[in-house]
Design a protein that fits this description.
One of its GO terms (molecular function) is fructose-bisphosphate aldolase activity. This protein is α/β, with parallel strands linked by helices and about 300 residues long. It is about 40% helix and about 15% strand. It contains 12 helices and 8 strands. Helix 8 runs parallel beside helix 9 and helix 10 runs parallel beside helix 12. The structure holds 1,3-dihydroxyacetonephosphate. The site of 1,3-dihydroxyacetonephosphate has 13 residues, from helix 11.
Length: about 300
Amino acid sequence: MADRRDLNQLGLNAGKKARLHRILHHHGLRNGTALFLPYDQGLEHGPRDFFANQEASDPHYVLRLAVDGHFNGIAIQIGLAEKFYWDYAGEVPLILKLNGKTDIPPSDHALSPLHAGVEDAVRLGADAVGYTLYVGTPAQSEDFAQYRQIRAEAQRAGMPLVVWAYPRGSAVGAKGGRSSFYAVDYAARTASELGADMVKVNFPHPEMRTGVPPSYDAEFSAQQAIDAVVRSANRTLLLVSGGERAGDQAMLDKARASIRAGATGLIFGRNVWQRGLAESLRFVERLHDVLSEAKPRAGATDPAR
Ligand SMILES: O=C(CO)COP(=O)(O)O
């Protein structure tokens, strides 16, 4: 089986390999794991996400947090990237989110429209682009077609493509729901089938079993579920998201299970910046500790090489 932490085994072109290497080597851990700070919730959920810590509504505050917390990258939309990233360019890698939408319309026909292209990412000095793909909605074919254009552009530019693979829509709702093991596992596999370089998923919930296909209707532990999801992603590097603010211990357990399963890293937003700065940085330290527990690649002197 391919070693997911050896970039030479992932079938990448030189530009993608160089950029992913920059991301994974951005700070001292160098064991092939990564911690990302997502900051597109202002579009996806609206300003309500900043009520818990008003300072986080200021992009400067969150970019500074990404730098001071030694994140391997920050994921933002074009508007913030153009107006704020300049001050931090090179200090933290940029993942430019290319599509996004509000949460005001119902999500059954969800399709996330494009607001930027791979050329914008090159101009802004990004090391990856992000695309939200909704798996299982009636608009899925349209989404796949839009995604295909972006994937072709990213391939030509040597730009790594990170897919936010989100199961959505009433059909998914009737089969366990968007965070069920079934739905998350299928989303990870879909991103890998469609050629994503990295995929971001929610942590799977094996206990959400109402309506799931029979193979998923059994007692799986959280560890078994995330192990399977990482396998489904195969040569696509896998990131696990934080989700809504929850207890730190629950977050750390989820992080540890993901890293143990072979996930490349974590993409935690609200659980990081929905609290005061000092507390955020302390929590980030604990996440770095979890990432540092990942086993070095067998035989590698520099484990991320
Ligand atoms: O990737 C994410 C949003 O783009 C995850 O963010 P949260 O950790 O806030 O759920």
